[in-house]
Amino acid sequence: MPEIAEQVGSVSSDRYAQIVAELRKLVETTSRAQFTIGDYALEVEPIREAGGQEKSDELFSVKDSLFRLAEDIGLTYSSVKGARWVASRWPKEHRQAHVSHTVHRILAGIADEQARFAAILTPPEGKARWTPDEANRRVGRQVQKPVTPQEKVSAIHTLAKDEDVAATVTGDLLRRPAVIAQVRQEDRVRVVEELTRDDKVAAAVAPEFLRRPAVVAQVTAADRVRVVEELTRDEGVAAEVTTGLLRRPDVAFRAMSDDTARHQVNHAQVERGRQAREHFEQTSPVAPAIRQIDRSVEFLDLVTACHAFVAAAGRVVPGMRDRQLGDDEQTVIRENCARVRATLDWIETAVDTGKVDVDGELARLLQGE
User: Fold this and answer.
1) Is 34 in the same domain as 55?
2) Within 13 Å of residue 310, how many CA atoms lie on the same side as its CB?
3) 126 and 50 assigned to the same domain
4) Which runs of consecutive H residues, i.e. helices, occur in 45-112?
5) pLDDT for 271-303, tens place per residue?
6) What angle do the packed helices 77-89 and 13-44 form, to 10 degrees?
7) Can you point out the beta strands (E) in the chain?
8) Of the residues 102, 128, 143, which one is the last residue of a structural domain?
9) Is 306 within a domain?
10) pTM of this prediction?
11) Helix, strand, or coil here: 299?
C-alpha cells in the first residue's frame, strides 16, 4: 500500500513547507518595513536619553511629532512609538534578517547591550531559530504556550486575575483530591479561614470538626474554653452542660474551689429553696393546715429547707445505682453527712428548747473545717 502523505491542517507536509518558505520571506519584508518606520521615527525624534531610554513619554514635542507622523502614514501613535524604540535598541549592524521584528522587540528588553546583541545570534539549545515564546522565556515574560509547570502556573494566575474567574477555578480545583493533597498545610489553613469567613458556612463546618476526636485533641486548652463559652451562651444549653459536668466529682471539686462559683451555687440553692417553699405552699396537702398555724417566717423557711433537702436527696441518690464511689469521694460524702446530722440535731434542739446557740465543734462542722 502506498504511504499516506503527512498532513498539516488541511494541506500536505510538502505544501506546508512551501507556505512556510513564502511566509518567511514576507515576515522578513515586514520586519524590514517595521525597522524602516522606526528609523524614520528616530530621525524625526531621536532618543533623548543615553542608553536608549527616555525619562518620560510626556515630552510634548516628542509626542506631538510622533503623533503627527503616525497620522500622516495611517498608523497608530503606539505603533510608531514602539517601532522607534525597537529601532533604537537594534543598530542596523546588529539586526538579523531571518529573525522577526516581534522577536527583536521582545529581546530589546534585555538591558545589557552586549548581552542583547549576543542573544539574538544564539537561539535556545535545540532550536534552529528564535520564536516569540523562546524570546519571552529569555527575558522572563509569560509565554503564549506554557510548557513547564511554572509557566502554566503563571498563565493560570494571569487568566484568573478576574475575581469571578478565580473563584470558579478555585472551586473546581478544590474538588480534586489529588490537587488538595499537594497543597501546603499553611495554605490549607488560609483557604479554610477564607472559606469560613461567612458565619453560616463557619457554623455548618464547625460541628463537623468538633465530631473528630483527632481534631479536638489538637485544640489548645484556651481555645477549647473559648469554644465552650461561645456554645453555652444560650441559658438552656449552659444549664444542661453544667449539670452534666457537675456530676463528675473531679470537675465539681475543682469548680467549688472557685469562690465566685461556690457563691453562685449557694445563691442558687437559696433561690431554689425559696421556689420550693412557694411550690410547697401551692401544692402540698398539708399546706392548708400549716396556714392555720400562727407561724413565723423562720418556721416556713425551716420547713421549706427540710422539704427541699428531702426532695433533692430523693432525686440524686437513685442516680447512684450501681456506681462505686472512690475512697476520696466516700470521705467527702461522709463528712457532709456528718454536717447534715449535726445540723438536724441543732434543729431539733432549737425546736425543743428554743436555744439556737452553736458550740465550737458544731460551728467547725458547719464551716467544713
Assistant:
1) yes
2) 9
3) yes
4) 60-73, 77-89, 101-107
5) 777 777 777 777 777 676 666 654 566 777 788
6) 90
7) 7-8, 11-12
8) 143
9) yes
10) 0.47
11) helix
**Length of the chain counted residue by residue:** 369
Shared domain for 135 and 11, answered yes or no, is yes
pLDDT per residue as tens digits for the range 92-117: 999 999 999 999 999 999 999 999 99
CA distance 316 to 239: 17
Does 51 score more than 50 pLDDT? no
Is 366 among the domain residues?
A: yes
Q: Are residues 301 and 345 in the same domain?
A: no
Cβ of 109: how many Cβ atoms within 10 Å?
14
Amino acid at 250: D
Helices (H) then strands (E): counts for the chain:
20, 2
* Domain boundary residue, one of 143, 167, 182: 143
Query: What DSSP line would sit under 188-242, residue for residue?
Result: HHHHHHHHT-SHHHHHHHHHHHHT-HHHHTTS-HHHHHHHHHHHT-SHHHHHHHH
Residues spanned by the domain of 359? 326-369
pLDDT at 358 over 80: no
- Cα of first residue to Cα of last residue in the chain, in angstroms, is 112
Handedness of CA 240, 243, 248, 253 (dihedral sign): positive
Give residue-wise pLDDT tens across range 128-159. Answer: 899 999 999 999 888 888 878 777 777 677 76
Please indicate, yes or no, if residue 150 is contained in any of the structural domains: no
Q: Which of 64, 61, 62 is nearest to 85 (CA)?
A: 62
Residue corresponding to grid cell 456554645: 231
Cα dihedral sign, 108-109-114-118: negative
Contact in structure between 308 and 276 (CB atoms under 8 Å): yes
Tell whether 133 and 40 lie within a shared domain: yes
For residue 181, is it within any domain? no
Residue 257 has pLDDT above 80, yes or no: no
Query: Which residue(s) pair with 7 in the sheet?
Result: 12
Q: Are residues 15 and 132 in the same domain?
A: yes
Name the nearest CA neighbour of 205 among 190, 141, 197. 197
Query: Domain total for the chain?
Result: 3
